[in-house]
Amino acid sequence: MYQIRRITAHGVFIIGLTLMILGISFLLGTMTGISRFSVLRAFLCVIIGAFCAVLAIKLNQRTIYLFFAAFFIMVGLFLFLSALQIIPVTLAQGWPLISVFAGLALLPPGWRHYRAIRYRYLIPSLAFVLMGCLLLVFSFKVAPFSFKRFIINWWPLVVVVTGILLVLLSLSSTQPRRDGSGGERDEIS
Question: What are phi and psi of 86, to 5 degrees?
Fold first, then answer.
């Protein structure tokens, strides 16, 4: 009986908190004349991120949930701030930020899993962030030429950067563990 009350109390708390946040989001959206769809889209991303964070906490060995939690919370906050026009960037302009958010979201799972920043997480994270920043240059039309022209002229640079990333990843995976037992574990879990 006590367990049922506890589960019910947790459920009511989560539903109440969700409704409060959704109401505040809609209130802020209606005050500034923003469509409810854009506020709801941002809110759903934040809720998915919060749900993944709860799963990451409850299931201690699953760092993949921590990645999704960080990613969806960052995307949701960006969408919310963009919808409220606090950040004057639309999703059509700022879509490369999704790559940056994915790169940044790789860092917390790596830290939680290994209690230190590892190349296995750092190198892909940097690759996503750099790719997102490069695409932002073309999305905001900072460069005097198009992305197509950039690829036509500079495609060998993509091959060089990919090679560098693969070499760094291979070097980091061949380093022995501190306890001398060989390589690192391969799974994300």
Answer: -75, -40
Closest CA to 136 of 72, 93, 77, 168: 93
pTM reported for the whole predicted model: 0.66
**Three-state secondary structure call for residue 118:** coil
List the beta strands (DSSP E) in 48-166.
Answer: none
pLDDT digits (tens, 9 = 90+) for 105-158: 888 877 766 677 777 778 788 888 988 988 888 888 888 888 888 888 877 887
- Number of neighbours of residue 53 by Cβ within 10 angstroms: 18
Burial class (CB in 10 A: 0-12, 13-18, 19+), 19: exposed
CB 62 within 8 A of CB 86: no
CB 66 within 8 A of CB 51: no
Cα–Cα distance for residue pair 133/43, rounded to 1 Å: 25
